[in-house]
Design goal:
About 5% of the residues lie in helices and about 25% in strands. By secondary structure, it is mainly β. The two termini are about 35 Å apart.
């Protein structure tokens, strides 16, 4: 959210950290009408431009985007182009049919790490080492698909 730094903590399900201050839910950012509220076990962030993030700690994260974003996103939640066959890409890695599952999972998750704000822990520093099977991952400059 522009102008806001949000943090959801699974230990604080009825609260959200907004710019360093804990707020009770429901919370509405008056400057842009973003609403954060509880719906059952879920915490929902609903933005006025159509983005909706539903978070259930340890269970799921669901990201809903309006159709205007179709074909303009990529990452862990796919590329939103209507073709599920080219989702879940690992940039720069050719994935063979005999690829060990732990290597696939590690490579996929690690490929989408992003920088974190200076006040947060750097996720890359906390990544466990790759499983032994990752050492044999063939690489290429062209992303490949896997099912």
């Amino acid at each position: 959210m522009s102008g806001y730094h949000l943090k959801l903590d699974p230990k604080e399900p009825g609260h959200v950290l907004v710019n360093g201050d804990w707020q009770n839910l429901p919370f509405q950012a008056l400057s842009n009408s973003t609403l954060i509220f509880r719906h059952g076990w879920d915490t929902v962030i609903s933005c006025p431009f159509g983005l909706r993030v539903t978070y259930a700690p340890g269970i799921r994260v669901v990201v809903d985007l309006p159709a205007a974003y179709m074909g303009h996103v990529a990452g862990l939640c796919a590329n939103y182009n209507g073709d599920p066959a080219d989702d879940l890409q690992v940039p720069g890695i050719v994935l063979g049919t005999n690829m060990p599952e732990d290597a696939l999972a590690w490579a996929f998750g690690h490929s989408y790490l992003v920088g974190s704000p200076t006040e947060c822990l750097n996720a890359a520093d906390k990544m466990p080492p790759p499983p032994p099977s990752c050492v044999t991952l063939p690489t290429t400059s062209t992303p490949a698909h896997f099912a």
